[in-house]
């Protein structure tokens, strides 16, 4: 965590030591082919895409993060394994233990915390007109015919 880097997609050793145990173990390789991209490199690729906003398929191979599809699949697998939720809890505990949480910037709303009670039950809506409304599809006047024959 420490000092901000000029390249925020590079994961520090300290941060990686917190993230690595939270990631799921990779399954057995079903097909021979290229070796698996290490998780830390894939994470750097994910952060690069998220930081720069480029499309996954345009992730430069020269950076050594693996292909954009590899990083995207790894992100999906880690989402499914709730790795980000677990990391959030770990980071909050770490900050709380060092008394470094700034609650003055915290926001709680209904999209994050469910309301404990419901408000008063609303009465059914009342009509504002007296009687029935006029039909907009039919007329009470005699039917007009465009035909000359009756």
Write a structural description.
This protein has 150 residues and is mainly α. Helix 2 crosses helix 3. It starts with 12 loop residues before the first helix and ends in a 53-residue tail after the last helix. The mean pLDDT is 83.
N- to C-terminal separation? Answer: 89 Å
Globally, the shape reads elongated
Indicate the mean pLDDT. Answer: 83
Rg of Cα set: 30 Å
Helix content: 25-40%
Q: Specify the structural class.
A: mainly alpha
Number of helices: 4
Give the SSE map.
Blueprint: H1 13-19, H2 39-52, H3 68-80, H4 83-97
Helix pairs in contact: 2-3
Organism: Streptomyces rapamycinicus
Domain Insertion element IS402-like: 11-88
InterPro entries: IS402-like_dom (IPR025161), Transposase_6_like (IPR052909)
Task: Using brief descriptors, characterize the structure shown.
IS402-like_dom; 150 residues; Transposase_6_like; single chain
In short:
By secondary structure, this protein is mostly helical. The protein has four helices and no strands. It is 33% helix and 0% strand.
């Amino acid at each position: 965590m420490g000092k901000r880097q000029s390249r925020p997609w590079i994961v520090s050793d300290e941060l990686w030591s917190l993230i690595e145990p939270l990631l799921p173990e990779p399954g057995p390789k079903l097909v021979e082919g290229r070796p698996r991209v290490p998780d830390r490199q894939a994470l750097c690729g994910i952060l690069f895409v998220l930081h720069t906003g480029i499309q996954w398929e345009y992730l430069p191979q020269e950076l050594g993060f693996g292909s954009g599809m590899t990083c995207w699949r790894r992100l999906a697998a880690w989402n499914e394994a709730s790795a980000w939720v677990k990391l959030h809890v770990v980071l909050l505990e770490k900050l709380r233990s060092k008394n470094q949480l700034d609650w003055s910037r915290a926001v709680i709303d209904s999209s994050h915390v469910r309301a404990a009670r419901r408000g008063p039950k609303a009465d059914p809506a009342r009509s504002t007109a007296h009687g029935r409304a006029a039909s907009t599809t039919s007329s009470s006047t005699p039917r007009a015919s465009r035909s000359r024959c009756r």
